[in-house]
Design brief:
Chain A: GO terms for molecular function: oxidoreductase activity. The complex is a heterodimer of chains A (342) and B (311). With 342 residues, chain A is of the alpha/beta class. Chain A has 2 domains: 19-198, 3-Layer(aba) Sandwich (Rossmann fold); 212-338, 3-Layer(aba) Sandwich (Rossmann fold). Chain A has 12 helices and 14 strands. Chain A has helices spanning 22-36, 60-64, 76-88, 107-114, 117-120, 150-154, 167-179, 228-241, 259-269, 284-296, 318-324, 328-338; strands at residues 18-21, 40-44, 69-71, 92-96, 130-135, 160-162, 184-189, 196-199, 212-215, 220-224, 246-250, 253-255, 272-279, 305-309. In chain A, helix 1 (22-36) runs parallel beside helix 7 and helix 3 packs parallel to helix 4. The two termini of chain A are 37 Å apart. In chain B, strand 2 (129-134), helix 6 (141-152) and strand 3 form a beta-alpha-beta unit. In chain B, the strands form 2 sheets. Chain B has a 5-stranded parallel β-sheet with strand order 1-2-3-7-6, sandwiched between helices. Chain B is 44% helix and 10% strand. In chain B, helix 1 crosses helix 2 (35-43), helix 1 packs across helix 11 and helix 5 (110-123) packs parallel to helix 6 (141-152). Chain B has helices at residues 2-20, 35-43, 58-63, 68-75, 110-123, 141-152, 180-186, 199-214, 245-254, 257-269, 273-296; strands at 50-52, 129-134, 157-163, 166-167, 170-171, 190-195, 220-225. Chain B is α/β, with parallel strands linked by helices and 311 residues long. Chain B has 11 helices and 7 strands. The chains are: A alpha/beta (342), B alpha/beta (311). The interface between A and B is large, with 42 and 46 residues.
């Protein structure tokens, strides 16, 4: 298993801190919250001794015991429903769904139960649960282990959705997710787990609904999510060599969405490309592009363009799989065309 | 218990009247005929025990202690309703009486009830959680995922299956293979079967199952055989395509849970018949007053529409 060939050192505007991996950042967030609040527990498949298939939770069971880091049967709907029940009766569960593709099995519990309980009860019942899962292709895992389905949950009122790109964001957003009184889904790109970045040793959380400008620029806005932030940053480096100054904006949460930062950036640069690893059609890029088109229309010099994953089941063969995911080269070509440079 | 069953019966008749006179919006699934289960089960529970309920949930809600007036207000979509008019007939929740909510997805609450039981165990209290569902939910996989985990972790949850024989408009002999009780027994759950028309049988069996759950002896499954006197929902008037009028009449004549209890009280307890009339009259006037309250209550303010999407 290879680690992604992208370095965080490229212009990511993070605070200073130790360099730790994305996986460590998630682990630290969970451990700190479990120490702080005895109501927090983790339930999922292979979360205890195995520390999950991605080794993200390694060591947590040693500190917190099998009563708080609970290995479940392979029952995604069951553990998600139990998360809802535990949450409305006073606990703060973190439900671990091994691969993002398996959220299909949780859909009734997330969409009809978790998302609607607060509203349907007239505000009486609260569902402070977190569903953490993965997204992202390019791991040669084929069509049922490679999808980015965060748009599904983003579509549902009552759910919040976080999609961190850096270890710093991952830790801060995870801690906020656990403290939130609503059901929150957090999608972690499995290709990012071993990537490193600066994370302060001190306690911090990151607010939901606040986009982060990962790089400032003046000629074009690249709105990107999760690992596509790294793709956008790589593209911005290449564009800089061509004399095009790209601004990279990371919404960090799709729900709530920081519309204002997206619109302001597009007004400043007058051009925008939206990049997300979900399927192109009806995906997150459509919503983000619409927000920019709606809010910055009179400032735009070109239509807002979108880059998502190809509308095909993710293929196994490496040669084919790589074709389905947006690349920095595609972003560069699209940006050059938008900026009138050929 | 007779009074509680009578209250549910009277509530449901009034709901039917409100619906058929076009004063109640939406859907209503009546519990008439099944009253002994809700009352028998909930009489064995404490106020701080949890229940999850179904689309046919008015009886469970009332038996757990909800007030008539606020329930009717919810049925009519009015502001003083239990859920501020946002839940309606199929979604009444009442935290104060431990009702974690009715659920319009068949079998949808199996995970929630089991999660509540996990929470009880983690918090170290001696509460129990009860999951009500119908025989139709036996076709839902979630139930079996939940029962598996409940038994593995010895959770204080009791699955109460109200076998009213019909999955909406289809008899369960067409939908349900094998043994109903055997499904729970396969997971190692304590499983019991009772006449769901006999409130005393439901209550006594439930007392035993609740006591063992409180002692930490794990989950149980209670299969209650019953019959839905009315249609799947109030609009299900012509039922000849799935069951006969004779069958319905037989159950209503011979197996009415209110009548069975009254007969027993008269025969064994020496209770005089006028007492039942008095109870019925009292309950009816309470229900009438509650209906009036709900009819006169205001609708929610339009500003409510996007409140409580997020906590």
């Amino acid at each position: 298993m290879s680690t992604p060939d992208v370095q965080y050192s490229i212009s990511v505007r993070n605070p200073q801190g130790r360099e730790i991996t994305f996986a460590q950042a998630i682990r630290e967030a969970l451990a700190e919250e479990m120490r702080r609040d005895p109501r927090v527990f983790i339930i999922g498949e292979d979360v205890a001794e195995a520390g999950t298939v991605f080794k993200v939770l390694t060591g947590l069971v040693d500190e917190f015991g099998p009563e708080r880091v609970i290995d479940s049967p392979i029952s995604e709907a069951g553990i998600t429903g139990m998360g809802v029940g535990a949450a409305i009766t006073g606990m703060r569960p973190v439900v671990d769904i091994m691969f993002g593709d398996f959220i299909t099995l949780t859909m009734d519990q997330m969409v009809n139960q978790a998302a609607k309980t607060h509203y349907m009860s007239g505000g009486k019942l609260k569902v402070p649960m977190v569903l953490r899962t993965t997204l992202g292709a390019t791991r040669r895992s084929a069509a049922q282990h490679s999808q980015s389905l965060h748009a599904w949950f983003s579509h549902i009122p009552g759910l919040k959705v976080a999609i961190p790109a850096t270890p710093y964001d991952a830790k801060g957003l995870m801690k906020t997710a656990i403290r939130d009184d609503n059901p929150v889904a957090i999608f972690e790109d499995k290709m990012l787990y071993q990537s490193k970045g600066p994370v302060p040793a001190e306690e911090y959380t990151l607010p939901f609904g606040v986009a982060d400008i990962k790089r400032t620029g003046t000629d074009i806005t690249l709105v990107a999510t999760s690992s596509m932030v790294l793709v956008a940053l790589e593209a911005a480096e290449k564009l800089a060599e061509l004399g095009i100054s790209a601004e990279v904006v990371d919404p960090r949460t799709t729900v709530p969405l920081d519309r204002e930062t997206l619109i302001q950036s597009a007004k400043k640069t007058s051009r925008a490309i939206v990049i997300d690893e979900g399927y192109h059609s009806y995906g997150v890029t459509a919503e983000l592009a619409s927000v920019i088109a709606d809010g910055a229309f009179y400032y735009l010099d070109a239509p807002v363009k979108r880059l998502g994953a190809m509308d095909v089941p993710v293929p196994f063969s490496p040669v084919l799989e790589d074709l389905t995911v947006p690349t920095a080269e595609q972003v560069v070509e699209m940006a050059k065309a938008l900026c009138g440079r050929h | 218990m007779y009074e509680q069953m009578c209250k549910i019966r009277s509530f449901e008749e009034a709901a039917n009247e409100l619906y058929t006179s076009a004063r109640m919006p939406g859907l209503a699934h009546l519990y008439i005929g099944e009253e002994a289960i809700a009352v028998g089960v909930c009489e064995a529970l404490r106020r701080d025990d949890y229940i999850t309920s179904t689309h046919r949930g008015h009886g469970h809600c009332l038996a757990k202690g909800a007030a008539l007036d606020r329930m009717f207000a919810e049925l009519l979509g009015k502001a003083p309703g239990y859920c501020r008019g946002k839940g309606g007939s199929m979604h009444i929740a009442d935290q104060d009486t431990g009702n974690l909510g009715a659920n319009a997805i068949v079998g949808g609450s199996a995970g929630i009830a089991t999660g509540a039981a996990l929470s009880i165990k983690m918090r170290g209290t001696d509460q129990v959680a009860v999951c009500f569902f119908g025989d139709g939910a036996l076709g839902q996989g979630l139930l079996y995922e939940a029962m598996n985990m409940a038994q593995l972790w010895q959770l204080p949850v009791i699955y109460v299956c109200e076998n009213n024989q019909y999955n909406e408009y289809t008899h369960n002999r067409e939908t349900t293979a094998g043994s109903m009780l055997g499904r729970a027994q396969a997971f190692g759950l304590e499983a019991a079967e009772v006449d769901g028309q006999d409130v005393r049988a439901v209550f006594h069996t439930m007392q035993r199952l609740v006591a063992r759950a409180r002692r930490g002896e794990g989950p149980a499954f209670l299969l209650c055989h019953t019959y839905r006197f009315r249609g799947h929902h109030v609009g299900d008037i012509d039922r000849s395509f799935y069951r006969s009028a004779e069958e319905e009449a037989w159950w209503q004549t011979h197996r009415d849970p209110l009548k069975l209890l009254a007969d027993w009280l008269m025969a064994e307890g020496g209770v005089e018949p006028p007492i039942f009339d008095r109870i019925q009259q009292t309950v009816r006037s309470e229900v009438e007053a509650a209906v009036q309250f709900a009819l006169n209550a205001p609708y929610p303010d339009p500003s409510e529409v996007d409140r409580h999407v997020y906590a």
